[in-house]
What we know:
The structure is a single chain. With 366 residues, the chain is mostly helical. It is built from 15 helices and four strands. A hairpin with a 6-residue loop joins strand 3 and strand 4 (240-243).
Amino acid sequence: MFESLSYMMLQQYCWMIVSLLGGILMSLMFVQGGQTLVYAVDKTEEEHKLIVNSLGRKWVFTFLILIAFGGALFVSFPLYCATCIKGTCLLWMMIPLCFTVQTAMYELGTAFAKQKLCNYVLFFSGMAGITILGTTMGTFFNGAMYSINDMNIVRWETPFRGIEAILNPHNLLLGATAFLLSRVLALLFFIKNIKNEQIITRSKIRLMRNAISFIACFIAFLVWLLVKDGFYYDPATKEVSMVAYKFFKNLIAMPVVLTTLIAGITLVMVGITGTLVNNRFIGGIWYAGSGTVLAVLALFLIAGFNNTSYYPSLYDLQDSLTIENSSSGHKTLAVTGYVSLVIPVVMAFVCWKWRRKNTQNNNINI
Length: 366
């Protein structure tokens, strides 16, 4: 089936798979967001244990999707990964490091439940992990300082090894947006799953504050993205050039992607507003989580589709990476296509395991 598809169709299909996994990963980042809310929501040791236990049993799902996301990128677009290893390795290494640290804290949570050090580590690892991930994803729209020669040998043109990405305010804005969204999702998760009136009341108060901040950051990021210049490459000559309002034009040229983005934003807003205005509405996490998947999927698609460089070179535009010049060969992409058919099975397993873990605790209801 997949081997009969054209090379371009396979490249676009694999980019869609990467985009979908990126959306699923972001929707599961409520674990990291929840880590940063422990002191804000719980006031007693019993409440603390409820929150830590509800979050601690979910880190494995986020870690699984993170591995799948990175693996899909590596197999489908190896030149991008080679560029990251050469340059932004420090940023990418910080992400799994934060995940590893938080995993250790969850496993030792019972022994260290009364120690503030454990909670501080959870807070900073959660905040750093999601913020760094969001900032790194910002380079898909804003590029990085690298060059690639005719032998596909990558050279990083700054001594900072990717750390300079944090100096770009648009990257940082995306990082802040991701961080605030993870907190919003975490609060919706608490309201849905924890049977404790005090925690639910405090979560709604925090939800209002974090939702306002998230919406402000997201609108600022999206407006900035739509009015900024983008990196266009000519499919005939492969020449890369700057085009005004490139990402806005991508949305107009791809109505399905535009519809997906609008649907995602709408679902997130339904999840937030429904929870705040209706005390009986506790399923906001499902709406906001689904909306997050769709919105992130759409952002990835406008970053790579419609003849757009998804990882521009700020040193030399002609070295910019596109889904055409950075992908694996036809056979490898075809195999990746077959492997992608396992994703529904993996998601079914995640849902089954999620439900099984929740039923093990009488205090958690899903």
